Amino acid sequence: MSSAFQTNKIGLHDLLKACDRGTLQLPDFQRSWVWDEDRIKSLVASISRAFPVGALMTLETSGVVSFK
Fold first, then answer.
1. 28 lies in a domain?
2. What distance in Å separates the CA atoms of residue 32 and residue 11, rounded to the nearest whole number?
3. Which residues make beta-bridge pairs with 59?
4. pLDDT of amino acid 68
5. pLDDT of residue 66
6. Any idea what DSSP says for residue 59?
């Protein structure tokens, strides 16, 4: 049986590049009630300091919509 979910390790630099290109986003259904701008900045700061952050669900996009 094939799994629909994947767990991938990605470096912070690659994560930020994908966000800048608009090819990786926090899904709207999470962001609207949990991920305001300050919390996103805090998450990135935690990742850059190698703090444990748990699982992070992201959304791969075509690059049409910019990361906000």
1. yes
2. 25
3. 25
4. 52
5. 54
6. E
